[in-house]
Amino acid sequence: MRAILPLVALTIAATAAPLRADPLVPPTVDYVQDVEITRDSDHSFAVPARYIVGGHHIRVEYVGIVTLVDLDRRQTTAMIPRVRTYWWPKPLIDGVKDSRRWVGVEAQSAEEIGKDTVLGHAVTKYRVRGTVFETRTPFEGEVWTTAENIVMRIDGIGRGADGFSAPIKVTTVQLQIGGVDQGLLSVPATFARMPRSNPGPRQQN
């Protein structure tokens, strides 16, 4: 009995300890997040996007195209809900293990530089180096992260393969933690699959 008591105390202490933001690891909860993505050019513009994260499944809604990510099957599927069409799944070709590539920054390094509040959520602000978006664009800048590792804001510089650099900003406008509709994380049975010979939606657009 005496040997068990210290183990119980350690378990209680671990579960009672506050969560700490860490941009080097993926989000720890399911959530729905609406953001605006701004890339400065001759004319600044903000593009709305929605991220839905449920465990190892992610849904990214962006400019009329939905990308479903299945980290268990290691594949992505593109679909256009407006016409109820989807394309053959594409395999993930490298060692991606979590959702950060689609919903935040894949950080190689992170330095804490402050605390803040975004939309009523306490966040930790970091100076981060890594990559951003599914394109894995090299990125350096500031990232605001909740205790659940949800990225609420991104503000920095992305660098293209040609050496060109441009500001990148991602701003959360709405966040719902939990309550994810799992049906949104798979292709509906009513959708038709395009022939393999058809180009993907991004190639068409």
Blueprint (SSEs and pairs):
Elements: H1 4-16, E1 31-39, E2 46-54, E3 57-62, E4 65-70, E5 75-80, E6 85-86, E7 90-91, H2 100-103, E8 105-118, E9 121-132, E10 137-146, E11 151-159, E12 165-177, E13 192-193, H3 201-204
Parallel strand pairs: 6-13
Antiparallel strand pairs: 1-2, 1-12, 2-3, 3-4, 4-5, 5-6, 5-7, 8-9, 9-10, 10-11, 11-12
CATH topology: outer membrane lipoprotein receptor (LolB), chain A
**What profile does the largest beta sheet have?**
13 strands, mixed
Query: What is the tally of beta strands?
Result: 13
CATH level-four homologous superfamily name = Lipoprotein localisation LolA/LolB/LppX
- Through-space gap between termini: 67 Å
Secondary-structure arrangement, i.e. CATH architecture: Clam
Domain count: 1
Based on CA atoms alone, the radius of gyration comes out at 19 Å
State the helix count: 3
**Could you tell me the strand content as a percent range?**
over 45%
Q: Could you describe the 3D structure shown?
A:
The termini are far apart. This protein is globular. It has three helices and 13 strands, in the order H-E-E-E-E-E-E-E-H-E-E-E-E-E-E-H. Strands 1, 2, 3, 4, 5, 6, 7, 8, 9, 10, 11, 12 and 13 form a 13-stranded mixed sheet that branches. Helices cover 10% and strands 49% of the residues. The chain has 205 residues and is mostly beta strands. The protein has a single domain (19-204), classed as Clam (outer membrane lipoprotein receptor (LolB), chain A). A hairpin with a 4-residue loop joins strand 4 (65-70) and strand 5. It has helices at 4-16, 100-103, 201-204; strands at residues 31-39, 46-54, 57-62, 65-70, 75-80, 85-86, 90-91, 105-118, 121-132, 137-146, 151-159, 165-177, 192-193.
